[in-house]
Amino acid sequence: MNVNVYDFDNTIYRGETLVDFILYYVKRDIKIWKYIPKLIVIAIKDGLHLFTVEEAIEAYASFLEGYYVNARNIGESVVDFWNKNEKKIKPWYETVRKDSDIIVSGTTDFILDEIMKRMGIKNYVGSAIDKKTGKFTRLCFLENKVKIFNELYPDAHIENFYTDSMNDKAMMDISDNVYLVKGNKITKIK
User: Fold this and answer.
1) Residue 18, Cβ neighbours under 10 Å: how many?
2) Cα(190)–Cα(188) distance, rounded to whole angstroms?
3) Could you report the per-residue pLDDT of 28-75, keeping only the tens digit for each?
4) Distance CA 171, CA 168 (A)
C-alpha cells in the first residue's frame, strides 16, 4: 500500500509541540520552573541536531520522571493546550490530506492523541511514555522512526515523505519522494 507520511513538528504544526506544551505549563505551574534551564539546553541541542536517540532519552528523563508523573489533570491540560494551539496547524496540510496519511512524530502520544482526533487522522505514531514512571517506552526519533514505522505499518510503502529536518534522513532513505517543509514553503528534495 502506497502512503504519504508526515513528520508533525515544524512540518504540519508550526513549532515544536513539546516546547509549546512546556511553555503552556510554565504559565500555569511554578513547579515546572526548576526544569527550565535543562529544558532550554535540550531545546538548543535538539534544534542543532546534536542528539543521539540515547542522549534524547536521557535528556528528557529527569523532566518526565520528576514532573510529568506528578502533573494533575494532564488530559484536561492537553485539551486546553490544543484549544489554544490548534490554530498552529499549517493550512497547506488540509489541501493535501488523505485518509491513508500516516504521521510519524517524536512528539509524545498523550499530546498527539487529541489533535489527531480533531484532525481526523487515524494512522499516527509518536513517542510513548509510561504514565506511572515517566520513562519512555518508545522514542520515535532519528533512526528509531524507521524501525517503529516498519513495525507498525509493515505493508506500507512511503510514496511521499514530508519533513522539516534532516534529522529524518533515515525516513527519507526509505521514501520515493521527499519534501522539505520550511514554514509554508514545500520543496521537493528527492
Assistant:
1) 20
2) 6
3) 877 777 777 777 777 677 666 666 656 666 666 666 666 666 777 888
4) 5
120 phi and psi angles, rounded to 5 deg: 75, 25
| 145-176 pLDDT, tens digit each | 999 999 999 999 999 999 999 989 999 999 99
Distance CA 60, CA 68 (A): 11
Which cell goes with 88? 498552529
Whole-number Å distance between alpha carbons of 43 and 159: 31
Give the chain as a DSSP string.
-EEEEE--BTTTBSS-HHHHHHHHHHTT-GGGGGGHHHHHHHHHHHHTT---HHHHHHHHHHHHHHTGGG-SSHHHHHHHHHHHHGGGB-HHHHHH--TT-EEEEEEEHHHHHHHHHHHT--EEEEEEE-TTT--EEE---TTHHHHHHHHH-TT-EEEEEEES-GGGHHHHHTEEEEEEEETTEEEE--
**Which one, of 6, 177, 5, lies nearest residue 89 by Cα?**
6
CA-nearest of 177, 25, 35, 43 to 106 is 43
